[in-house]
């Protein structure tokens, strides 16, 4: 009952907050800060992306990133990125340079500029250059761009609408692209010699006011946007966040206060139920349609990530000829980028409908950069088709190497030394995810299948479809529904009686995997279906046996013996039923790299003991 009362209290707080009563007293200067990046000043309505901010101050779509002193902005359409050379707050102009063309004397423009519904306009100071590339047939007297000619193909540039009218360019050329440049930079007499410089000089856009922000701004507030709820807000000078304008609330504030106070428990209960309902509804529908995905991509897409059209993927993968494998979320194909780089293209099942796993994957993986985490190179959202493009891992998944005995294919088993290095590598990757500066990432699906090996057998964690970003440092999190793969899921994930879901849940999966590595290598006679629980209890049982008798193989060196022992002991620590008893992943690395003598024998985990009787009975020493 007290729990109910406290939730009522919390709820009433939110009730007030969302009815614009909550006095959030942080001043505007921290709400709507001014940033300096290189020579560019970024202030309202422009804002700098910040993964830990849900409420942003500025216009949606006006979010920029600052990287190495350069300001980067994505424009709608395909969210191609541009350097922001200048923002002029006096005459409301923006100078952009296409990121593809910087510092090139002969740039090949490949993106039309698209402004979507943003409050941006083409400036009257610009004129449009129209390019026609790879023309196979052309009038002989029209000069072409020499540096873009390939074989007998020619490419042309014109000031828009000054094309040679009596020639059908679109029919005879492969691609047309139209880009604006500053009028003053163009010498129409020498267009071909000067277009590169002109494009490097950038183009101007006029920016204006967002329509719905009118009432807020004219009442002295700053327009803000809630990325998660996709709602407009108004940041007012008195530090209060309001829905509409800053003026007409002083009277209604008091009115609302009475209404709020008068609201009976029934009212509260209704709110409570509604919020619960909305929440459960939100979690299944918020990312459902393409618009939400687009909004997500707009707000979170890192500039380095390329967007592909589906037909381009088809080209890259040779019409999806070469299937590499199949996961829970779709099929993976081998492909080759135009620059020759091999990639793995994961096409997500369209039937799954909601984009949650897509968003999880892009959001978590795109903000990571670690040698033990697979690199995301690009993505595709094209109608209902969604795909992710990763670096290619020639050695496939770890699973292949530890379930060797049950597979038809003969893959050479890895030596202990390699497996040990792989275990440490995975732990390092996890440590990186768990440590994250702003956002810690919980993977929730650590298993051999999701560990990929590069040409040197360096392990990389992949498949972030179930991952969860936690912005509050060190906090426990709530998740809806059990996630993960049976056999690797920590007990608390499917039954809260075991404890709070946290980074320790990944540690559990990691421990299971490590024991499986040891077990697989030892060719323990296992049930083939490695997702069955029987397999795991059996495996652990066997591991305990091994533990008591580690002289099991005559051809194992002392070093190997020690590595295996460390893996088993650390693994057993990781799979303690009570999350509290499990080490953090950093501690696991210490265990693996440290002295074997320092490793305590873990208490026997009671893996399938009934809820409510957690394993404390046997574990008194916590190694945290
Ligand atoms: C910043 O401005 C200075 C002086 O105007 C200029 O020399 C420099 O190149 C600019 N730096 C950048 C990154 O634009
Ligand atoms: C992001 O937001 C957090 C919390 O508001 C703040 O502490 C941090 O400094 C911000 N980071 C950047 C790069 O602005
Ligand atoms: C902004 O543009 C105005 C008018 O073109 C110009 O006078 C002013 O110097 C510019 N401001 C900056 C900071 O460049
Ligand atoms: C472009 O050239 C300038 C100076 O020549 C250099 O500072 C800058 O890093 C170059 N930018 C890129 C993207 O190569
Ligand atoms: C350049 O092209 C855009 C988009 O097609 C158009 O809106 C704009 O008016 C053009 N600018 C000029 C100066 O023709
Ligand atoms: C012309 O087409 C070829 C083959 O598709 C391509 O490699 C090349 O980049 C194209 N050239 C231009 C200038 O678009
Ligand atoms: C010439 O352009 C055509 C398309 O217009 C393209 O298919 C062909 O590959 C190009 N040839 C070369 C040598 O790039
Ligand atoms: C760019 O826009 C023109 C029309 O202005 C269109 O014909 C062309 O196909 C577009 N190019 C690309 C690459 O989207």
Describe the structure.
- The protein has three domains: 61-209, no CATH class; 286-391, Phosphorylase Kinase, domain 1 (2-Layer Sandwich); 399-617, Transferase(Phosphotransferase), domain 1.
- It is 31% helix and 21% strand.
- A hairpin with a 4-residue loop joins strand 7 (80-88) and strand 8 (93-98).
- It is built from 17 helices and 26 strands.
- The model is unreliable at 1-25, 281-288, 405-411, 523-537, 547-552 and 607-624 (pLDDT under 50).
- Residues 48, 50, 52-53 line the site of one 2-acetamido-2-deoxy-beta-D-glucopyranose.
- The site of one 2-acetamido-2-deoxy-beta-D-glucopyranose has 3 residues, from loops.
- It is a single-pass type I membrane protein.
- One of its GO terms (molecular function) is ATP binding.
Quick recap:
By secondary structure, the chain is an alpha+beta fold.
Count of discrete structural domains: 3
Q: Could you name the CATH homologous superfamily of the largest domain?
A: Transferase(Phosphotransferase) domain 1
How many whole angstroms does the radius of gyration measure?
29 Å
Continuous helix count: 17
Tell me the CATH topology of the largest domain.
Transferase(Phosphotransferase), domain 1
Name of the CATH architecture of the largest domain:
Orthogonal Bundle
Helix content: 25-40%
Q: Which word captures the global form?
A: globular
What average pLDDT do the residues reach?
75
- Which spans of ≥5 residues are poorly predicted at pLDDT below 50? 1-25, 281-288, 405-411, 523-537, 547-552, 607-624
The number of strands is 26
% residues in beta strands: 15-25%
What would you call the structural class? alpha+beta
Strand order of the largest sheet: 3-5-6-7-8-13-9
Give the biggest sheet.
7 strands, mixed
Main CATH class of the largest domain = Mainly Alpha
Instruction: List bound small molecules.
Output: 2-acetamido-2-deoxy-beta-D-glucopyranose
Cα distance, first to last residue? 34 Å
Catalytic activity: L-threonyl-[protein] + ATP = O-phospho-L-threonyl-[protein] + ADP + H(+); L-seryl-[protein] + ATP = O-phospho-L-seryl-[protein] + ADP + H(+)
GO molecular function, one term: protein serine/threonine kinase activity
Membrane topology: Single-pass type I membrane protein
InterPro entries: Kinase-like_dom_sf (IPR011009), LRK10/LRL21-25-like (IPR045874), Prot_kinase_dom (IPR000719), Protein_kinase_ATP_BS (IPR017441), Ser-Thr/Tyr_kinase_cat_dom (IPR001245), Ser/Thr_kinase_AS (IPR008271), WAK_assoc_C (IPR032872), WAK_GUB (IPR025287)
């Amino acid at each position: 009952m007290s729990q109910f009362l406290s939730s009522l209290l919390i709820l009433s707080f939110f009730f007030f907050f969302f009815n614009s009563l909550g006095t959030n007293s942080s001043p505007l200067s921290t709400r709507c800060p001014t940033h300096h990046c290189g020579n560019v000043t970024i202030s309202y309505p422009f804002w700098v992306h910040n993964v830990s901010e849900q409420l942003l101050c500025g216009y949606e779509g006006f979010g920029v990133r600052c990287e190495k002193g350069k300001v980067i902005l994505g424009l709608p359409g395909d969210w191609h990125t541009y350097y922001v050379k200048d923002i002029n707050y006096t005459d409301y102009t923006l100078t952009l340079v296409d990121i593809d063309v910087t510092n090139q004397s002969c740039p090949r423009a490949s993106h039309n500029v698209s402004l979507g519904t943003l409050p941006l306009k083409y400036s009257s100071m610009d004129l449009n250059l129209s390019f026609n590339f790879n023309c196979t047939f052309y009038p002989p007297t029209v000069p072409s761009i020499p540096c873009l000619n390939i074989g007998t193909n020619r490419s042309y540039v014109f000031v828009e609408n000054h094309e040679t009218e009596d020639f059908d360019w679109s029919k005879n050329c492969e691609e047309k692209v139209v880009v604006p440049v500053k009028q003053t930079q163009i010498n129409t007499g020498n267009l071909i010699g000067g277009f590169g410089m002109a494009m490097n000089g950038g183009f101007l856009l006029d920016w204006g006011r967002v329509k719905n922000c009118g009432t807020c701004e004219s009442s002295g507030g700053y327009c803000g946007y809630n990325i998660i709820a996709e709602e407009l807000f108004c940041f007012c000078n008195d530090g209060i966040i309001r829905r509409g304008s800053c003026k007409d609330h002083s009277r209604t504030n008091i009115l609302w206060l009475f209404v709020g106070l008068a609201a009976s428990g029934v009212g509260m209960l209704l709110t409570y139920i509604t919020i619960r309902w909305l929440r459960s509804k939100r979690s299944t529908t918020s990312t459902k349609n393409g618009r939400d995905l687009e909004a997500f991509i707009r707000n979170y897409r890192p500039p380095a990530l390329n967007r592909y059209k589906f037909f381009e993927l088809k080209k890259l993968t040779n019409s999806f000829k070469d299937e590499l494998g199949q996961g829970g979320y779709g099929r993976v194909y081998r492909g080759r980028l135009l620059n020759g780089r091999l990639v793995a293209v994961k096409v997500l099942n369209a039937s799954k409908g909601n984009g949650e796993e897509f968003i999880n994957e892009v959001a978590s993986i795109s903000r990571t950069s670690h040698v033990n985490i697979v690199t995301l190179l690009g993505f595709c959202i094209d109608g209902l088709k969604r795909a992710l493009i990763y670096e290619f891992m020639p050695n496939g998944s770890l699973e292949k190497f530890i379930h060797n005995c049950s597979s038809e294919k003969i893959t050479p088993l890895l030596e202990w030394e390699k497996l040990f290095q792989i275990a440490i590598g995975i732990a390092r990757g996890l440590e990186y995810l768990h440590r994250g500066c702003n956002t810690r990432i919980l993977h929730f699906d650590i298993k051999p299948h999701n560990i990929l090996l590069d040409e040197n057998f360096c392990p990389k964690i992949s498949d972030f479809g179930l991952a969860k970003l936690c912005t509050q440092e060190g906090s426990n999190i709530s998740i809806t529904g059990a996630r993960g793969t049976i056999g690797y899921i920590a007990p608390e994930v499917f039954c809260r009686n075991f404890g709070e879901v946290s980074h320790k849940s990944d540690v559990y999966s990691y421990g299971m995997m490590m024991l499986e590595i040891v077990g697989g290598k030892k060719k323990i006679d296992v049930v083939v279906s490695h997702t069955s629980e029987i397999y795991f209890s059996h495996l652990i049982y066997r591991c305990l046996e091994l533990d008591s008798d580690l002289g099991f193989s005559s051809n194992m060196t002392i070093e190997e013996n020690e590595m295996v022992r460390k893996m088993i002991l650390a693994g057993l620590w990781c799979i303690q039923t009570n999350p509290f008893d499990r080490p953090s992943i950093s501690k696991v690395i210490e265990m693996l790299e440290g002295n074997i003598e320092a490793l305590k024998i873990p208490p026997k985990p009671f893996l399938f003991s009934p809820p409510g009787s957690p394993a404390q009975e046997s574990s008194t020493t916590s190694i945290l």
